[in-house]
Amino acid sequence: MEELKDVADLFKTSIVEHFGRALLNSLCNLNSLDDYQNLDISLVYNLLRNVCKNVTPPKRGWGYEPSADDVSLGADIERIRSMWNRYCDGGTEFLYLGGIYDRMVDRYGNISDLVKFEDTGRKKILSFELNPECQIEDGLVLTKAIKSVLEILEREHIVVVIGALGTGKSTCLKYIESHYRRNQWTVSRKEKSITHLDLNVDGKKKLFCCDNLFGVFNRGNFAETDEIIKVLENIEQKVNHELKVVFVIHDHVYEELQEIHPIRVFQNKRVVVDFNELSDAEMLLILNDQREHGHCANDPKCWFRNVDFELVKNTLQENPGKLGNPILTLLYSNRHDIFTKREATRNIVRELCTIFQKMLEDTPDLFNVLLYVMFVKTHSLDKNVEEWASELGGLDSITVKKNVSQLGAFLFVEADGSRIEIKHELLSFALFKCCASSTKYVFLLLKHCRFEMIEEIIRPVSTPNHGEFCVILRKEMYDRFSSRILEDDLFERLKEHPLLKEKSFFRYKLYSMSTDNDRKIRVVKK
Fold first, then answer.
1. CA dist 444 to 289, 309, 349, Å?
2. Are residues 51 and 100 in the same domain?
3. DSSP labels for 190-230?
4. Same structural domain, 144 and 247
5. Measured between alpha carbons, how far is residue 173 from residues 152, 161, 165, 245, 340 in Å?
6. Which of 164, 237, 375, 502 makes the best surface tag, with the fewest CB within 10 Å?
7. What is the residue range of 311's domain?
8. Which residues contact 519 (CB under 8 A, 6 or more apart)?
9. Is 29 part of a structural domain of the chain?
10. pTM
11. Span of the secretion signal (predicted)?
């Protein structure tokens, strides 16, 4: 019955078109075996024809009288339709009825005592091809949003893809790139920024894609922000029939930019595609695929296999919109413990922080390996870990390799046999936030984590409208953070960062340390 309810979501528009909303509701409201008799016979036939995987089409196809030698289930279903329709026209003799009955008994046993024959007013059984709301191509659910990107690129030269973290924007970008490569276009891709040089085509048809424009977690690349904006403001003068451009930008980054500079190309609604909205059919297909490849794939008795889509939809209603539903269902499909607490959907970052804290307490090696991978972004399994990794509980290459499979089972990392990286930026952010709240780990975070990530996430306490994806710089972090900036010679790079653009205690601290450092250097030189 739950499968039939799923069918109602997947074929909703087509069912309503051919049978009306009342029959769709009868399908959605199935609660017991007795409810099957309320289904319209034409609807039942067309579900058997279009949906049931174990019913193969007759040799001559649906809607035609089957050949005498075709005794498949699909052929018998088609014969029953044909006989009934002839009966509606006054026919009384049916050549193959006895053979059909015998084959049905062989297939399903003697069910004649359970069948109630009702003359329905001799209403004929019609045959239709039902079309699903969306399709799967090469393992990817082709959502309406993905199709919109392709359609816009046919008539326009620029597309802006906007959505919350985890809505499938990067997945869409990979599909678009693959599509254009198949059509003999040169594809170029960058992360976070764009320059005038990126728009050169050199006489070739070129697709340029920029994922996570202005940064993943917040408005990163501060030193480059003004330059990126200049390129975006003049981009319409650069594009032509040989160049198409796709920008992917997170909602929270877009909102922050709007406060600073409402970029013209982002205001053109004709080229903006919002990835935040998914139909029930799209969400169901995505969930089914995630469930098929998630934890349940290795555990046939897992309770999550029997969780129906309606319950998942009700849980997702708690989502405040800061994260995409696809990333939430991906987590649910691999960490079912999150799903047992409906309120967790309201603040999944906090829930992940709790999971990471428990991992630190119960399996510190596992936590330290995960933290190391976040610090370096990508680790080659055939190389030794960085020397400083020993500061993470004495971490070494053997410990990393030993724990990779366990982390992969939890969905936390992706390993291809030669390298390992965290599966999704949401996990990286939650781990960053977990460390930032720990007295022990915050100093290791500021000392060893990729500075690009620190730069994007950390904000001064005076930041207006603290975003969902930032961490506030606390006083106890000043010394270690200032030392990192000076040690890595990052002072010039941070001039445009909000941390240094205001008169704050941190700015005063950094300038003081910088002055002391210069004084020490001069003394050494003398």
1. 38, 42, 21
2. yes
3. EES---GGGG--TTS-EEEEEESTT-SSSS--GGGHHHHHH
4. yes
5. 14, 9, 14, 11, 33
6. 237
7. 280-340
8. none
9. yes
10. 0.82
11. none
Cross-strand bridge partners of residue 188: 208
Strands (E), 347-452: 378-380, 413-415, 419-422
CB-CB contact of 210 with 280 (8 Å) = no
List the CATH number of the domain containing 152: 3.40.50.300
Among the candidates 322, 340, 358, a domain finishes at 340
Q: Are 508 and 381 members of one domain?
A: yes
Q: How far apart are CA 79 and CA 86, in angstroms?
A: 10
Residue appearing with tokens 């990052």: 490
- Per-residue model confidence as pLDDT tens digits over 142-195: 999 999 999 999 999 999 999 999 999 999 999 999 999 999 999 999 988 888
Taking the mean position of all CA atoms in its chain, how far away is CA 179?
A: 19
Distances (CA, A) of 136 to 47, 143, 282, 305, 394: 19, 9, 10, 21, 46
Q: Considering only CA atoms, which of 178, 213, 183, 219 is closest in space to residue 198?
A: 213
325 and 403 fall within a common domain: no
- From CA 355, how far away is CA 453, in angstroms rounded? 21
Residues 398 and 474 in one domain: yes
128 is a domain residue: no
Answer for the pair 127, 46: CB distance below 8 angstroms, yes or no: yes
pLDDT of residue 358: 94
Nearest to 410 by CA among 334, 345, 354: 334
Give tens-digit pLDDT for 450-501.
998 998 899 888 776 667 788 999 999 999 999 999 999 988 888 778 888 7
Compare 13 and 399 and report the one with higher pLDDT: 399
Higher pLDDT, 315 or 119: 315
Angle, CA 162 vertex, CA 161 and CA 166 arms, to 5°: 105
Residue 139 shares a structural domain with residue 223: yes
Number of domains in the chain: 4
How far is it, in rounded angstroms, from Cα 64 to Cα 335? 48
Q: Is 218 found in the same domain as 305?
A: no
Structure tokens at 123: 């209403």
SS3 letters across 25-91: HHHHCCCCHHHHHHCCHHHHHHHHHHCCCCCCCCCCCCCCCCCCCCCCHHHHHHHHHHHHHHHHCCC
The span from the CA of 421 to the CA of 416, in Å, is: 9
Give the span between the Cα atoms of 517 and 129, in whole angstroms: 76
Asked whether residue 389 falls in the same domain as residue 515, the answer is: yes
Tokens representing 339 are 């799903």
Asked if the structure places residue 119 within a domain, the reply is no
Give me the half-sphere count of Cα atoms (radius 13 Å) on the Cβ side of residue 512.
8
